[in-house]
Amino acid sequence: MNEKNFKRTTVTAALPYANGGIHIGHLAGVYVPADIYVRYLRLKKREVIFIGGSDEHGVPITIRAKKEGITPQDVCDRYHKLIKDSMEEFGISFDIYSRTTSEIHHRFASDFFRKLYDDGKLIEQESEQYYDEQAHQFLADRYIMGQCPHCSNPDAYGDQCERCGTALSPMELINPHSTISGAKPVIRKTKNWYLPLNEYQTWLKQWILDEHKEWRPNVYGQCKSWLDLDLQPRAMTRDLDWGIPVPVEGAEGKVLYVWFDAPIGYISNTKELCDAQPDKFGPWERWWKDSDSRIIHFIGKDNIVFHCLIFPTMLKAHGEYAMPDNVPSNEFLNLENDKISTSRNWAVWLHEYLRELPDKQDVMRYVLTANAPETKDNNFTWKDFQERNNSELVAIYGNFVNRALQLTWKYWNGAVPACGELHDIDSETIREFKDVKEKLETCLEAFKFREALKEAMNLARIGNKYITECEPWKVWKTNPQRVETILNISLQLVANLSIAFEPFLPFSSRDLRGMINMTEYDWSELGSTELLKAGHQLKEPHLLFEKIDDDVIDAQLKKLADTKAANESAQTDSTPVKPNVPFETWEQMDIRVGHIKACERVPKSNKLLKFTIDDGSGTDRTILSGIAKFYEPEELTGKSVLFVANFAPRKMMGIESQGMILSAENADGSLSVTTVLKPSDPGSQVG
């Protein structure tokens, strides 16, 4: 569909979990591109609304609350304020930034679910889910960890592997365990309400694969890979005690699934805004229900399935809403060649950046846009950050602006000189930047923000080249009138820069307009050579950007190095090595390979497993081991393990144990049984 068919645009940015701050990965993936687009639409005088807010019902919030010994609401209140304040200071220009714990959202999401329920659009069914018998609760996906079946990451969550990005279900995990108690969960039946995605598959294929081929390849491709398979019903409720209660009889102890609840926050936040400012925004329904309203979701690639398949299906099932027209999703941004990880604190946090590099919002906005992961994962490094600031913002953009303004003050006391007869170089330069508006708009309309930024910076390159080749400081000595024309054209370029960079670098653009005393400006005038009239008085100039010294970057690199060292220390901390012993003492130990023929729990013991071991002697050996918390008997049966064969027999729970199976104690206190890499005969000695 063509943009001209829409009267207004609803822009949403993915709701961040209120369990921590915002980092540069979030900014590059979602918030900076969304803000650029919204600022551009406002400059074009299009009717637009920009919706954001905190997702406060995610399981990560309850995990942090348990860890800190506070309530989930305490966590939400703390991080909602931190995120909101940081976004505002960074210049992310939301019309509203609200939250999913608001009363209006609870009521709205509850009513949305109830309508689907009353209309028979949800199905009720029992399913088998993991249950933690020690914690006495069903486990949400994020409360389950295990090995990813795709990339073998041992720390994959039950809903997604953060290493390879694959969406998962808990049942796919290998060796799952509860993050609450560490215990292996058991499977129990529970009743929930499901959205039958399979019933909407034909419609989804038509709507996405046929009608939205213009979507970014990563979005279209991921949707196609899902739609080429058979979609299955997806649970819209969960067995949890934190969230919006399911508004149905018999649903006690259940809440709305966070991925049902959160995207509805876009709508409830719009209602909250429109109810508060009806004269400015009108009724909320027109932003979400009118066919001439365009809806754009800015997200990261880990949210594609939810925003392109699940949420549209919810809207379709409801029956009163317009569909999203585009979902510009970015790939991931890495940090210093390593994946950004909140759990490892491997990130550049926005609130810390704002404090440690004050007044540098536009530098980060520039770097994240210039290096945006639009088509593939990209990498942020502090050296590149410094280089782009010093070599591009300072040496190209800032340098041109400073030269043009300083020369104007030097020769005409800050008054814009008149433009006289044009030479070939003048005409060529004017021709070069005449079509900047068209080029910028072509890129921005296609969500190609990195290319658009290059076009804006190209104006500064044109200006630098022009003023360098014309050398007004030399020409002044022989032809002051010629210098008037050179500086007039240079100042027109400066004024154009203040408009062209407005969507990308709002702080420095405002600063620049202050220096050239340009109180009014219009996007439609971009490319004009008459933005500043002859005689117009400029204000005293100052440097638009400043160099960033090595010590600033070194401090940030040291901070990351300290984080990495702390992570490595936490992973490798081990018990100090015991004092040396004579080799003869070692020789007294008889360590052998044993084949586990059978394994069972010891009655009335939560700790002990009983092993029947083939030790190669022809007579089975019985060994008890205190590893029942970490292994199920069937996991070990058939394995070859190492055991000490010459310990004196010892009775435990009335059973004589004839040796000790060797295990390694991990940093978290769990035990890992030692096995052999290659097949070895029972009874083989270790030495």
Automatic annotation (TrEMBL):
Cell location: Cytoplasm
One CC-aspect GO term: cytosol
Biological processes, Gene Ontology terms: methionyl-tRNA aminoacylation
Reaction catalysis annotation: tRNA(Met) + L-methionine + ATP = L-methionyl-tRNA(Met) + AMP + diphosphate
Cross-referenced InterPro entries: aa-tRNA-synth_I_CS, Anticodon_Met, Met-tRNA-synth_bsu_C, Met-tRNA_ligase_1, Met-tRNA_synth, Methionyl/Leucyl_tRNA_Synth, MetRS_core, MetRS_Zn
Ligand binding (Zn(2+)): 148, 151, 161, 164
EC number assigned by the record: 6.1.1.10
TRNA-binding domain sequence ranges: 585-687
Domain of life: Bacteria
UniProt motif 'HIGH' region: location: 16-26
Molecular function terms, GO-annotated: ATP binding; metal ion binding; methionine-tRNA ligase activity; tRNA binding
Cofactor(s) of this protein: Zn(2+)
Keyword flag tRNA-binding: yes
UniProt cross-references to Pfam families, sorted A to Z: Anticodon_3 (PF19303), tRNA-synt_1g (PF09334), tRNA_bind (PF01588)
Keywords per UniProt: Aminoacyl-tRNA synthetase, ATP-binding, Cytoplasm, Ligase, Metal-binding, Nucleotide-binding, Protein biosynthesis, RNA-binding, tRNA-binding, Zinc
Described function: Is required not only for elongation of protein synthesis but also for the initiation of all mRNA translation through initiator tRNA(fMet) aminoacylation.
PANTHER family, per database record: METHIONINE--TRNA LIGASE (PTHR45765), METHIONINE--TRNA LIGASE, CYTOPLASMIC (PTHR45765:SF1)
Protein name as it appears in the record: Methionine--tRNA ligase
Organism in which the protein naturally occurs: Prevotella micans F0438
